Amino acid sequence: MTIEITFNDRTYPVHEGESVLDGLERHGVAVPSSCRNGVCQSCLMRATSGEVPASAQSGLKPTQKERGYFLACQFKPTGNVTVALPDAADQRRFTARVVEKTRLNPTVSRIRLSKPQDFQFKAGQFMRVYRDGESRSYSIASMPQQDYLELHIKVFPGGHFSSWLCQTVQVGEELTIGEATGDCFYLADNLDQPLLMIATGTGLAPLWGVVRDALAQGHRGEIHIFHGSYVRDGLYYMDEFAALAAKFPNVRYYPCVSDDPTESQALRGQADVQALKHFPKLNGWRLYLCGNPDMVNTMKRKAFLAGASLKDILADPFIVTVPRQELPEAPAA
Q1: 53, 108, 118, 245: which has the fewest Cβ within 10 Å?
Q2: Looking at residue 14, what DSSP letter applies?
Q3: CB of 184 within 8 A of CB of 210?
Q4: How many Cα atoms are found within 13 Å in the side-chain-facing hemisphere of 116?
């Protein structure tokens, strides 16, 4: 039987027992790689069709396995597969109509889009919005069973893309969006595991989806959500999270303000600092980190030192060449 690998719309036959990496390279296709032993993860790819064996996913995060990621040097196909590089995952585009625009605080707006019929996503993932050859990534705050896609967008000073979305685009207009991607979502593989969620600014958007998705799937473990801002005006969805905590006894919500001495309804200090103050030992915890890249990187390191396993620290990397003030606060890593 001939086994075929489809990559970048071209199909290549491979030998029985030959890895995806070796097969593609034999046909002159360049695939990033290094150790070729399944350790460095340089040859990480994603299967968009076909079965991926567990042996090709050793050492990957559960969320990566769920999305079909594999190590090309370890994957020896036994049937036809279609594969892509990780940064090629966002190729398909959709048209979505703006159905609502709401101001959440002085700088953040909520935009809801009609969900295209065949648009698939998991709560907490992110997608791109396209305009005239440019694009920006925004996390999805809604849940898959809802008929809209919810985005929380902060208008940055001098940020023409965020200003266009929040100030120029009108209800009823159509936007071009990319398919959902990212690993910062909930898997119901341990319903009793404690969850710690930390966000700054619009990093709250994916967590609003993740926490509701976890509860909908019957999560029983403690869920603690810390949301930070410099001042009270930077916070939002306080009532919504408080209502969630009132409804579910395993949920606790902690608004945090780091630079507002007059604030009395929030914790004083940065969200990540407050989280570690409350929970200094994180052995066995799963963490979701979203927002300011410096906070996320610092907290990833501190969480590991506090006992959290690297596979249980979820934060989506997001790299795009734009002016620094234009960078969204979520997704980030």
Answers
A1: 118
A2: E
A3: yes
A4: 16
Query: Residues 121-137: pLDDT tens digits?
Result: 999 999 989 998 888 88
Let me know: does 83 contact 47? Beta carbons within 8 Å.
yes
* CA–CA separation, 90 and 80 (whole Å): 22
Between 1-5, 30-34, 162-166, the lowest mean confidence (pLDDT) is in 30-34
Task: Let me know if 37 is exposed, middle or buried by CB neighbors in 10 A (0-12, 13-18, 19+).
Answer: exposed
Q: State whether residue 45 is helix, strand or coil.
A: strand
Average pLDDT estimate for 28-55: 88
Closest CA to 242 of 270, 285, 211: 211
Domains recognised in the chain with CATH numbers: 3-88 (3.10.20.30), 93-178 (2.40.30.10), 195-326 (3.40.50.80)
pLDDT digits (tens, 9 = 90+) for 69-84: 999 999 999 999 999 9
Task: Characterize 297-317 residue by residue with b for buried, 16 or more Cβ atoms within 10 angstroms of its Cβ, and e for exposed.
Answer: eebbebbeebebeeebbbbbe
CB count in 10 Å sphere of residue 233: 14
What is the enclosing helix (H) or strand (E) of 206?
helix 204-216
